[in-house]
Amino acid sequence: MKDFIIPDRDFGTPESKSKVMVTLNVDGFDVTVPEGTSVMRAAAEAGITVPKLCASDNMAAFGSCRLCLVEIEGRNGTPASCTTPVAPGMKVHTQTGQLKQLRRGVMELYISDHPLDCLTCSANGDCELQDMAGAVGLRDVRYEAVENHFTPKNTAGELNRQWMPKDDSNPYFTYDPAKCIVCSRCVRACEEVQGTFALTIEGRGFDSRVSAGAASDSFLTSDCVSCGACVQACPTATLQEKSVIDIGTPERSVITTCAYCGVGCSFKAEMRGDELVRMVPYKHGKANRGHSCVKGRFAYGYASHKDRILNPMIRETINDPWQEVTWEEALGFAARRMKDIQAKHGRQSVGVITSSRCTNEETYLVQKLTRAVFMNNNTDTCARVCHSPTGYGLGQTFGTSAGTQDFDSVEQTDVVVVIGANPTDGHPVFASRLKKRLRQGAKLIVIDPRRIDLVKSPHIEAAHHLALKPGTNVAVVTSIAHVIVTEGLADESFIRERCDWDEFQDYAEFVADPRHAPEATELLTGVPAAELRAAARLFAKGGNGAIYYGLGVTEHSQGSTTVIGIANLAMLTGNIGRPGVGVNPLRGQNNVQGSCDMGSFPHELPGYRHVKNDSAREVFEKLWGVTLDHEPGLRIPNMLDAAVEGTFKGLYCQGEDILQSDPDTKHVAAGLAAMDCVIVHDLFLNETANYAHVFLPGSSFLEKDGTFTNAERRINRVRKVMAPKNGFGDWEVTQMLANAMGAGWTYTHPSQIMDEIAATTPSFAGVSYEKLETEGSVQWPCNEAHPLGTPLMHVDGFMRGKGKFIRTEYVATDEKTGPRFPLLLTTGRILSQYNVGAQTRRTANTVWHEEDVLEIHPHDAEVRGVKDRDWVRLASRSGDTSLRAKLTDRVSPGVVYTTFHHPSTQANVITTDFSDWATNCPEYKVTAVQVSPSNGPSDWQEDYASQATLARRILPAAE
Amino acid sequence: MRVETGEVTARLQDILAAHEGLEGPLLPILHAVQESFGYVPQDALPLIAANLNLSRAEVHGVMSFYHDFREQPQGRHVLKLCRAEACQSMGGDALAERVKHRLGIDWHQTTPDGAVTLEPVFCLGLCACAPAALVDGRVVGRVDETRLEALLTEVRA
To answer: Is B129 annotated as a binding residue?
Structure first.
């Protein structure tokens, strides 16, 4: 790791997990390390650094650079310390006359084919080659190279055939072959850490070069996913961030948490002054263990994008242009309107939407705003449209609304079931950790209508891919349970001990019914019965079985039922309560777990306590000095319905773009247009802001303190690395709005908000900024019983007592294909873009995905006369849009697929307003559609684009 | 001769099928491809990679490591001259220059009439009979003026 500016020690080789300890002597010091540790690492543990170039502690030893040679008493020669394991009583010398001479000799050879332009090199001050030259005392290079790799022309002006120009095809980093010492660290990082295998060493001997992809590829056209692992591994300037080339080396670093997906990777934000130089994954981050993806590592440029709005704006009606005003004016305007609305239309006529991208503290304040200032429970969050069924399903069966494991658990799993999730795109860092385990031999079962990358990509292959028809999750999951129960594969002792036996018997009787047999459901689900039976047997009997699932499970009319079905499977097979097993929702946004925990739902106070619960309400009433409404408030779809009816008039929407992300765009637009005061609090004039009256500029995750809670319930610190460009952190803005309405809040730092959360919410009782400072992070529940948090849930018993089996009857969705709409549309994400794309579309990530495309099977395309890259019209009962087609056999015939990252496509014009029976989570994943050739954008797209342009006009500020 | 992509795919399927289940199959497959086509078409690499569940980069890395796997079709004959130390000490350099001059091509090139490809090789294990050459797989030792003429006549035929 290139981390010499801001040291974060590299031990050279990975930690050994052995329990057997070995004592050896290094340079006269005794050191005790686990068996299997390398001599290099043992020396490092003793505080002695052996010079090295090809070793790094996040990948296996390679032994190629010959710099880390040591002498071992009683052994011949000078073995490489990185590849030599320790042995009891071993006496190692790391610095002798012979070693010094050998190392200088090796260094001399390296330097003879390396340019000596250190002063103008982008790695100056951050180069391991430079450091090692210093460490071995290189003073002279005796060799004069006849040929070299680094001069473009020789002294006679002839071109050097060995020289290769820089490859700067990747938007974020460059590959400069002239600086390369062929240590293979990049190739190994790509293979071992990221698992993409995009790099290789081509040729041999003096001709050896790092090559991305095959002979004709550049970094951009290769399989490279731009995760940055190779850049981080490179000891020289060969692979270098363009931002470092532009700015120079950073001077300090602040540890913070990525604001993209629910993995919650820890990063070092490396700074020069108040300029962010680069984001480097933090080795001690417990979610990511030093790895990153293209979004967190590189796609942070949106925070300083020119589209970002930095001044508050208001307007009388949504047809007026925006007018920049002072904060006082904007907040006064907003407060006045909200008060007027409540005076005229009643207490229940306004509400809030909290953000899953903002911090826990900010979310807590927003729900407090509605409960304690607006005096109603009209609060909801985007989890409504993603993981609300997880909350319901796991709450009912296990007793908590969260994943059961930490991400480290995947290292001990034997059979992984991935249902309705695409980790390599949606949760890339977790996917890398999963793939690593799969390469070690764990088995994989994928249940997904699409052939996602995990099904087959270099060095991994799913044992079973159950390519079900969209909308039949419950039938498949119940059939798996049928096989487990009828073939006697259930873990009876676990069930007897941990679950309610009567409920199990009821459930067993239900699933054993022959109508749930895979042979019976095959026609419905499209999954071959034999394949399903084999998958069920593997999961039940293959060792530690872990289930990871995503929005492909929840965003259905039976989302909650599928979550319950998944929980049933885990209980049936005894896969709960130890490392390597469990039920793990892969949560979409950085803080969607946190926003749910913080009481964003209309029926739940922070900590998932129902608003009807008198004792829970009392805690807050006492502290806040108000009387809380004991009736649940409105969910997002209810708010919009009420708005259309004219009873809901005011909305404060923080950091969420409901117009683009929520289903049935036209209905959302109609609801917003019917309101008298829509306050949008965001970085950008997002799509929702087209219907807003007040715009409050938001701050990015780099500009404020707080915490995010990731998918494994881990509370990670977000730290302010620069002053907010808009002047205030989002928590300050919410507080100012509340105070403008007379609340009288006096928080001066987010830690005070966390203290309030801890004082009121039992599962957060032990959380404080002090503890997060010393521990790095904790996983809730964190309280007196678990002062350092809870990595694994339900270890000795379920949170609710006995695990509860619930029947999972399959009920087909009302959204059915027919002659007019014969295809099923399902939606998803891709790696380089995030959610509605508000952030990633404003970065260079667009080189990988500049528009949403419709994936369609070649057979379906052919009968419709559609060719690759053609414009097609995609129509459903709700609406239509146009986009380009991409022919691929990743989708089965009868199924089409698209992403929703671009507002110009508006995939959600197509989706219907069907939703989960328990939680109203919209059915994004199943829509009956028709595809036909088209000339270009639809009328709706054109109308929408012109409305958006009109709505985004900003008048110059009044002088 | 170059082979069209469609034909590469068709013939490659047979080769891949013949090697199914073999342990460590990449090198045998590359050999079989070179045997069948006379070279290893670049079009074949992604297909081999997909079949073995490797990445394109890995297959490229292996193929480019071995100089005997050719990216281009070769001439009807292949003449390899030893460039290793023993042969150099016995006039190998001069011999090589003469051959290049007579054929009008440089290393790794093929004469325009497609008759012969010239390749360097590092040690044929024939140091006692240096300078040595390899003509279409047949070793020839003590390549002097007369033998060279005979060799050139043979390969230009």
So the answer is: no
Q: How far is CA A644 from CA A348, A652, A666, in A?
A: 15, 17, 12
Q: Mutate one of A175, A200, A210 to test the B interface: name it (highest B CB count within 10 A).
A: A200
Position A957 confidence tier, pLDDT thresholds 50, 70, 90: low
Global confidence as pTM: 0.93
pLDDT tens readout for residues A375-425: 999 999 988 888 889 989 999 999 888 889 999 999 999 999 999 999 999
The answer to whether A215 faces chain B, any CB pair under 8 Å, is yes
Q: Categorise residue A261: left if φ over 0, alpha if ψ from -120 to 50, beta otherwise.
A: beta
Three-state DSSP state, A488: coil
Closest in A201, A216, A458 to B55, CB measured: A458
Upstream peptide bond of A787 is cis (omega within 30 degrees of 0): no
For tokens 């006369």, what's the residue? A865
Taking CB atoms and an 8 Å limit, are A212 and B64 in contact across chains?
A: no
Indicate if B139 and B89 belong to the same structural domain.
yes
Q: Which of B42, B55, B71 sits opposite A198 (nearest CB)?
A: B55
Any chain A CB within 8 A of the CB of B58? Answer: yes
Residue A479 dihedral angles phi and psi, to the nearest 5°? -65, -40
Report A:164-203 residues touching B (Cβ under 8 A): 196-203
- Establish how many alpha carbons lie within 13 A of residue A791's alpha carbon, considering only the half-sphere containing its beta carbon: 12
The answer to the question of residue B71 being in a domain is no
Provide the shortest C-alpha distance from residue A462 to chain B (in Å).
Answer: 12
Size of interface A-B (CB pairs under 8 A): 61
ipTM reported for the complex, 2 dp: 0.89
Question: B45, B65, B85: which is the final residue of a domain?
Answer: B65
As for how many domains chain B has, the answer is 2
Same-domain check for residues B19 and B43: yes
Please indicate if any CB of chain B lies within 8 Å of the CB of A776. Answer: no
Q: Are residues B40 and B98 in the same domain?
A: no
pLDDT of residue A2: 43
3-state SS string over A29-60? EEEEEECCCEHHHHHHHCCCCCCCCCCCCCCC
Residues B34, B90 within the same domain: no
At residue B98, the pLDDT reads: 92
B87 lies in which domain range? 77-156
**Residue A622 to residue B80: CA distance in whole angstroms:** 93
* Structural domains of chain A sorted by starting position, each given as residue range(s) with its CATH number in brackets: 21-95 (3.10.20.740), 173-304 (3.30.70.20), 315-386+591-762 (3.40.50.740), 388-585 (3.40.228.10), 823-950 (2.40.40.20)
Distance from CA of B67 to the nearest CA of A (A): 8
Q: Which of B40, B65, B90 is the last residue of a domain?
A: B65
CATH code for the domain in which residue B104 is found: 3.40.30.10
Which residues contact residue A117 at a Cβ distance below 8 angstroms, ignoring those fewer than 6 apart?
Answer: none
Q: In order along chain B (157 residues), what is the average pLDDT of each group of 10 residues?
A: 79 94 95 93 93 95 93 90 94 93 92 92 92 93 90 86
